Amino acid sequence: MTRFVLVSDTHNQHSSVQLPDGDVLIHSGDFSFNGNMKEYKNFFFWLEGQEKRYKHVIWVAGNHDGNRFVEERGEAWLEETFVEVPGIYLQDTSVVVAGYRVYGSPWTPQFGNWSFMESRDAIKQKWDAIPEDTEILVTHGPPFEIGDRNSSQDPCGCGWLKQRVKELPDLKMHVFGHIHESAGEHSLFGSDIKFVNASICTSAYKPTNKPIVIDLPTKVFEWNC
């Protein structure tokens, strides 16, 4: 089996998270509060440490990670600013790791004045761009009524995202965060897809939720030489 270690919404407290061993580490956004350069550098320092532990480290941004240059230019700005970005940053892009095709996207439906947000109509275009052959989907926000209940038990997820997820024939796992109150594993009736709200922080921004570990069948044997 290939072991995926899943975290999200660490909000500058990633260093206090006790991570289990595994093969692939995924962080699905909101590593910061304000997305400033100090927070990015702190996160990158942490990522560099994780690259020594895991074969692959994948991450997307979230609404708190609101550096306007990243939002507008994505990986190009990151590469130019930091020369070499730790881990694999996905912004509406795919990568193949451990034999699995992973697609990542930071967008969530609009509320307030946060980053990486689109109106509930415009965001459909973002989800329509998810490739048909995606096997692991990493988004910051949840699909509608799947790990998306806030403290008032209102569903906050995106209906268009849920529709797109149901259309993907090869999808094995969907990792997200954003709604701290719904951290944990979830399911969709009639589906074998593993849905994971990997939020580490609680609604009070205490990093007390544990990372979630998911084992998927090994597709590619990778040797450390």
What this model shows, in words?
The chain has one domain: Purple Acid Phosphatase, chain A, domain 2 (4-Layer Sandwich). With 225 residues, it is an alpha/beta fold. Helices cover 20% and strands 23% of the residues. Strands 5-6-9-10-12-11 form a 6-stranded mixed beta sheet, with no helix packed on it. It has helices at residues 37-51, 68-73, 75-82, 123-128, 159-167, and strands at 2-7, 24-27, 56-59, 88-89, 93-97, 100-105, 108-109, 117-118, 136-139, 173-176, 184-186, 194-197, 212-216.
Instruction: Give the fraction of residues assigned to helices.
Output: 10-25%
Major pleated sheet: 6 strands, mixed
State the CATH architecture: 4-Layer Sandwich
Strand content: 15-25%
Structure summary, number of beta strands: 13
Structural class: alpha/beta
